[in-house]
Automatic annotation (TrEMBL):
Pfam families: Aminotran_1_2 (PF00155). Its EC number is 4.4.1.14. GO terms for molecular function: 1-aminocyclopropane-1-carboxylate synthase activity; pyridoxal phosphate binding; transaminase activity. Its cofactor is pyridoxal 5'-phosphate. This is 1-aminocyclopropane-1-carboxylate synthase. Keywords: Aminotransferase, Coiled coil, Ethylene biosynthesis, Fruit ripening, Lyase, Pyridoxal phosphate, S-adenosyl-L-methionine, Transferase. InterPro entries: Aminotransferase_I/II_large, Ethylene_sulfur-biosynth, NHTrfase_class1_PyrdxlP-BS, PyrdxlP-dep_Trfase, PyrdxlP-dep_Trfase_major, PyrdxlP-dep_Trfase_small. Belongs to the class-I pyridoxal-phosphate-dependent aminotransferase family. It comes from Cynara cardunculus var. scolymus. It catalyses: S-adenosyl-L-methionine = 1-aminocyclopropane-1-carboxylate + S-methyl-5'-thioadenosine + H(+).
Amino acid sequence: MLSAKATCNSHGQDSSYFLGWEEYEKNPYHHLHNPNGIIQMGLAENQLSFDLLESWLKNNPDSAAINHHSIFKQLALFQDYHGLPAFKNALVEFMSEIRENKVTFDPNNLVLTAGATSANETLMFCLADPGEAFLLPTPYYPGFDRDLKWRTGAEIVPIHCSSSNGFRITKSALQEAYQQAQNQNLKVKGVLVTNPSNPLGTSLSLHELELLIDFISSKNIHLISDEIYSGTVYCSPGFVSIMEVLKNKGLMNTEVWKRVHIVYSLSKDLGLPGFRIGAIYSNDDIVVSAATKMSSFGLISSQTQYLLSEMLSDKKFTKNYLRENRKRLKQRHEMMEKALQKAGIRCLKSNAGLFSWVDMRHLLSSPTFEGEMELWKKIVYDVGLNISPGSSCHCSEPGWFRVCFANMSKETLVLAMQRLSSFVDSMTKESNQSRRRQPLIGNPRRLKSLPKWVFFTIVHYRKVGEERYVVRCDDQLVSNNKRVDFL
């Protein structure tokens, strides 16, 4: 008696990304009421500069417009889906400010949506028919499986990126993904990238951006640049918008210019996900027209638009906010990564975002995605941290995790790192004890010349003429020029 859409299982809710959230909600950490609960490190939310927003509101009480009868009545009555002109003007100026005013945006090309989720789905409706595909570099935000595919019927084909080059996009990876789509009889309509990347926390290089422009030009397809983290770049290299690349390459007012679209939001840069402020920017008049009509299914309240138009029009505030927010993000990022390094855990070098891409491959019981899920469950249930496994982000290499750092207090992050450090220590001890319990395997004659020690660990190896091993045992060193069979 229900529709196929209502009963299908293609939403992606069974992903480990969402399952971790469910476990957190069952047992959320609270420093007083539930100190042993799960700490939420799977939420890419920026709470580090919330005090700056509260301070502005305190100093600008009239911005809420509740106390002014004429403004309140104007906002409470009907508004069309084009949005308040004052807010659209303030928003495009804020977008330009983030990009150091190297590019400008026309408010007539801006479509307001209820968050970036709605913006990405609306673009899918505008650019692809059911069964047509977009190429996405991996790893990518787990919610894209829902946002891009669930209701639109569009398909995602991964562009497999590797840790060998820091998960950077390459020409060969783009070509392989395009060929894979053709092998599956899928018509490719475009490429979607996040810049800066979620979950990597890295901004796309100029080389990657130019590579993408050349690729979509040669294939005659679209490019969506999701730039919702553009204001979170806290160290070099800086952020380069796709619009800046188009301008510098002299591609304004060309066919390629019309096939490049930007998604933006105030959820990350301004830390206001609950306000549901999203936007599509496109130079294609047909896309703008169609997306504007579709936006009637997810409008932003007039009061919210009025409030934020007042806030974003305050240039002194926006300048100070962007500077201070970047400073705080950098400090928090360094704080977490130093704690991870102390625990023997490395991260991908990043410069943006609200998270780190963390390498835990050395902690896997086996170098498989089964091993990754085993480790993830231990971290969620035993350690009490909800982090996002790389497999939920479609990473092709098991053992990577996205760990968020900006949605909690400094004290909570310290506790989270203490928990993780203790867990790593316990795993190391268990591994050492397990090795000690294993029998010595090897040729007795080859071991005859060595003292009758039981436990050996290679600390150095070099080859000079014949194979040479240096062995540590009980803090003593013994060398043997003959080959030795080790555990």
